[in-house]
Design a protein that fits this description.
Keywords: Membrane, Transmembrane, Transmembrane helix. This is MFS transporter. The protein is mostly helical. It has a single domain, classed as MFS general substrate transporter like domains (Growth Hormone, Chain: A), CATH 1.20.1250.20. The protein has 19 helices and no strands. Helix 4 runs antiparallel to helix 10. The longest helix has about 30 residues. It is globular, with a radius of gyration of 21 Å. It starts with about 25 loop residues before the first helix and ends in a 12-residue tail after the last helix.
């Protein structure tokens, strides 16, 4: 992304008329709603693919390797999501973080509706890629607003409370999708019943976008203008979407093995990272954005995204196959993992803030949470490998691992946010999630390939645990910066 153009506009509202002075919890509420619907929108793909596989319907049901193809669709979405991470943060630093959040929600709602209207594999992939490109800008701008407009003594719990919307959205996406598909069937949609959850979530996303726009419009020292950043995002997204779709179409035309297509996505990632790093070096911001500590956090979070989207995308199918249960029962069991975030995200932030107020670091908490999740992921893999586990056992392991896994994330975000100045935080979180998203891109397709190759999901579970074990070591090497907070 070009670094030229108008001078960057940073988040300066707190220096003029405060955006949320005395009302930062209101900000938390709207950002939580944004996370909720954004994650419901993106989570819906996994249960929809699982329904097609189970019912041999749609454009997945008659595929020779349905799990691999389903995973590839998820990877295409996250390739798009990945490629706008840095662009979203950089545009937020320039045009305003409020503006980018509204653009992201509007974009996601419209493209989720389009996803439901598509009639074939290629059209669905196009819509999902475009959805990912728009949703990719939400993350870096949301993190900056919370950090910039929340008192330092409550910053991590704010990040956790807002991020709990992710867990709620995952839970809703996993649990509600099979029922919405059934509802579509009762309405006579037949083999197109899979479209119903996409219609519902798309409409709700547009309603959340409208409410967020109204909330932001009356706050800040400048008018809320979404046109200019939306046009810049469109201009940026077109070549990214073309590159992703060319990759998919070539793979489809020449019947490439799916692992080769995944390597193509990794090549796009490496090209994007190279362009971004060159731009950062050219503008003299290497000290802020490319130092040793931030790279340890960047790379360590690949494991978080790998595990997040392995369990989010495939957990319903894993539970259904391992426990020989119905799709509805499997969805309820799998939801224990996502639902644990409703507790884990804010509690992790609350504990971390208590340590900061006591003058202690947050890094030990991050290491403990990552280590405990690793052990519990191994236990889940053993249960799957042994065959015919009970739904109660699987649900209990998923819930306990989810508590520690979700508590980890706001702690890491807070650690990272304190390593850069406010004017560079959008770019910092954009690059952070750009690097980390390689885990989300690779996880669904690698896990699907392992399932088709071995006939079991255990290999995918053990791989996720091994990746997280590496993150434990990386977080232990981080030298954190403990913020000074006012006495309370």
């Amino acid at each position: 992304m070009s670094e030229s153009g108008a001078p960057p506009r940073t988040v300066t509202e707190s220096k003029g008329r405060a955006l949320f002075s005395g009302h930062h919890t209101h900000l938390w509420g709207f950002l939580l709603a944004g996370w909720l619907i954004s994650y419901a929108d993106r989570t819906v793909t996994g249960p929809v693919v699982a329904w097609m596989i189970e019912n041999k319907a749609g454009f997945i049901g008659d595929a020779s390797n349905p799990a691999t193809l389903g995973g590839l669709i998820g990877s295409m979405f996250f390739t798009g999501y990945m490629l706008t991470q840095y662009a979203g943060g950089r545009l937020g630093d320039r045009y305003g973080h409020r503006e980018m959040l509204v653009v992201s929600l509007l974009w996601a709602g419209l493209l989720t509706l389009v996803s439901g209207l598509t009639g074939g594999l290629i059209g669905f992939v196009v819509a999902r890629v475009l959805t990912g490109l728009g949703e990719g800008v939400f993350y870096s701008n949301d993190r900056v607003l919370v950090i910039s407009h929340t008192p330092a003594a409550r910053r991590t719990i704010g990040l956790g409370v807002v991020l709990s919307g992710l867990s709620i959205g995952l839970t809703i996406g996993i649990v509600a999708t099979p029922h919405l598909i059934d509802w579509g069937g009762t309405l006579g949609m037949g083999g197109r019943a899979w479209s119903m959850p996409l219609y519902v979530f798309g409409v709700v996303s547009l309603l959340v976008a409208a409410a967020t726009w109204r909330f932001f419009r009356g706050r800040g020292d400048k008018p809320l203008r979404i046109g200019p950043p939306a046009l810049r995002l469109i201009a940026y997204s077109i070549p990214a979407a073309v590159a992703i779709l060319v990759l998919f179409l070539l793979a489809d035309e020449f019947s490439w093995p799916d692992w080769l297509t995944a390597i193509g996505s990794a090549v796009l990632f490496l090209v994007m990272v190279t362009i971004v790093i060159r731009g950062i070096v050219r503008t003299g911001r290497s000290t802020q954005l490319l130092n040793r500590n931030v790279w340890l956090i960047y790379i360590g979070f690949i494991a978080v995204m790998w595990n997040l989207w392995f369990f989010s995308f495939w957990s319903v199918q894993i539970v259904a196959e391992a426990a020989h249960s119905s799709l509805g029962a499997a969805a309820l069991t799998a939801a224990f993992n996502a639902g644990a975030g409703i507790i884990g995200f804010p509690v992790g932030g609350w504990i971390a803030d208590r340590r900061v107020r006591a003058g202690k670091g947050r890094k030990p908490l991050a290491v403990i949470c990552a280590a405990v999740h690793t052990v519990l992921a191994v236990a889940f893999g053993v249960s799957v490998a042994n065959g015919d586990p009970s739904l109660l056992l699987l649900g209990l392991i998923l819930f306990c691992s989810g508590l520690f896994f979700n508590a980890l994330q706001p702690i890491v975000h807070s650690l990272l946010g304190d390593l850069a100045e406010e004017k560079d935080r959008g770019s910092l979180f954009g690059l952070f999630n750009l690097v980390a998203e390689i885990g989300a891109v690779a996880s669904p397709v690698v896990s699907g390939v392992l399932r088709d190759a071995t006939g079991s999901w255990a290999a995918g579970v053990f791989t996720a645990a091994g990746v997280m074990a590496v993150a434990v070591v990386l977080y232990a090497l981080v030298k954190e910066r403990i913020p000074e907070v006012a006495a309370t």
